[in-house]
Amino acid sequence: MPQPIVAIVGRPNVGKSTLFNRLVGKRVALVDDRPGVTRDRRVGDAQLLGLEFQIMDTAGFEDEDPASLPGRMRRQTEAAVREADVALFLIDAREGVTPLDEEIGRWLRAEDTPVIVAANKAEGRQGESGRLEAFSLGLGEPIALSAEHGEGLVDLFESLRPFVEREEEEPAEELDSDDPMRPMHLAIVGRPNAGKSTLVNRMLGEDRMITGPEAGITRDSISLDWEWQGRKVKLVDTAGLRKRAKVEDKLEKLSVMDTRRAIDMAEVVVLLLDATRGLEVQDLKIASQVIEEGRALVIALNKWDVAEHASSLFNGVKAALEEGLSQLKDVPLLTVSAATGKGIDQLLGAAFVLREGWNRRVSTGELNRWFEAAVEQNPPPAPSGKRIKLRYITQVKARPPSFVVFGTRVDKLPESYRRYLLNSLRKAFDLGAVPLRMTLRAPKNPFDEK
Q1: Is 39 annotated as belonging to a binding site?
Q2: Is 305 annotated as a binding residue?
Q3: Separation of alpha carbons 135 and 133, rounded Å
Q4: Least CB-packed of 28, 101, 296, 301 within 10 Å?
Q5: Is 240 annotated as a binding residue?
Q6: pLDDT in the model for residue 29
Q7: 195 is in an annotated binding site
Q8: Is the pLDDT of residue 249 over 60?
Q9: Is 220 annotated as a binding residue?
Q10: 207 annotated ligand binder
Q11: Residue 449 marked ligand-binding
């Protein structure tokens, strides 16, 4: 399904390209103090507090002969607005509404595309008079922004969300990890010589990967299409990850970078441990990296068929994981043997269950009913006698599930309370050991006492 399109329009030099660059997260569009730098429409993939959409930068709108270059640029802008789901009309808050702004406003009112008015360059409390003046454009309540400094993005999020968020158009079956048409992206990672390539070969039922007693045979991340019990899997074998201090060879450094890219692209990551060596600090570092990247994690003890003192080894590794991975509890710990194939079905079954939670999207109604009950049962503290008021929560994306909580004085909310919300959320919606994201946001109030 194509992503919704937001077109940024306005007269020259109001900061359209600066806002475009901020929303796409990199300096793509040229920015200069001179007007007219942008000529063609430029489209980029934008993200704002988890909302994902396409953002379109347009040329400055000028009142010129249609046959002239500025006139032809204007036609491009008009086409952009008609193509878009919503137009973001930027004015310069410091200059207020100009005659050209009024002309653009008249044109936009005649179009069918919804319009959001944003008063840009409103750093701090500057430009409030310009924002209020923008009410005269007749296009609804303007919001204050500073594209250069990143201020006002929460208000922009709330204004764009009704036009950009398409939860009703993303049926659950499209996100269902049991859909046999969507392969699960599964990366096998671990220290050198943990048996990753042997495990991949056993899964495939063929000697697809080179294996041997030497550590570091695999250098590139190899992606392979496979099926398990009728479900498609994109299986990725990766190079072993050693301690950073030991990685000196340029080729090994490139291999490490390739493995990290494989983690970034995966949905579920299997961290393979060597049962004959137990759990090492490097294993915990790899596991933490996977969790920080927001990927679902399964930990598998390989070479279980030759492990000594199996029961005490398993319990010791489990206890060490609970202590070393405090940021995510109950990460699945399974035992496998790449040599015999024992435990592989259980490993794949756990991976598909985790993937389902990783793709989970909770409806706004369900989410806020849980949220109200959780806050009522355990209200947030009141630092210095001043209440922290949590208003509502929304899920802004899945893969992994990511949420934004809106309220007042949320910067004073203790980390322990945030953990309480995450743990309660995980339990209420059966999200299992899936990394969750929770961001706290408070709308900026220009009348707050500093």
Answers
A1: no
A2: yes
A3: 5
A4: 28
A5: yes
A6: 35
A7: yes
A8: no
A9: no
A10: no
A11: no
Residue 253 has pLDDT above 90, yes or no: no
Exposure class string for 310-340: b at 16+ Cβ within 10 A, else e:
eeebbeebeebbeeebeebeebbbbbbbbee
Q: What is the architecture, at CATH level 2, of domain 5-165?
A: 3-Layer(aba) Sandwich (3.40)
Residues 6+ positions from 179 with CB-CB distance below 8 Å = 173
Question: Is 60 marked as binding a ligand?
Answer: yes
**Residue 278 is labelled as binding a ligand:** no
Q: What percent of the chain has pLDDT over 70?
A: 80
For the stretch 310-334, pLDDT in tens is 999 999 999 999 899 888 888 999 9
Q: By three-state DSSP, how is residue 16 classified?
A: helix
pTM: 0.61
Does 303 show up as a binding residue in the annotation?
A: yes
Half-sphere exposure of 263 (CA within 13 A, CB side): 26
Q: pLDDT tens-digit profile of 415-438?
A: 999 999 999 999 999 888 899 999
pLDDT of residue 403: 94
Is 2 annotated to bind a ligand? Reply is: no
Tokens of 94: 């410091």
CATH architecture of the domain formed by 364-441: 2-Layer Sandwich (3.30)
10 labeled binding residue: yes
Q: Give CATH 3.40.50.300 domain extents, the chain.
A: 5-165, 174-358
For 174-358, the fitting CATH number among 3.30.2310.20, 3.40.50.300, 3.20.20.100, 3.40.50.2300 is 3.40.50.300
Residue 244 has pLDDT above 80, yes or no: no
User: What's the rounded Cα separation, in Å, for the pair 125 and 177?
Assistant: 47
Average pLDDT, the chain: 82
Show the DSSP H helices in 341-413 as ranges: 344-358, 364-377
- As a whole number of Å, the end-to-end CA separation of the chain is 45
Does 238 show up as a binding residue in the annotation?
yes
Measured at the CA of 21, the angle between CA 448 and CA 91, to 5 degrees, comes to 55
Tell me if 304 is assigned to a ligand binding site. yes
Does the annotation place 359 within a ligand binding site? no
pLDDT at 28 over 80: no
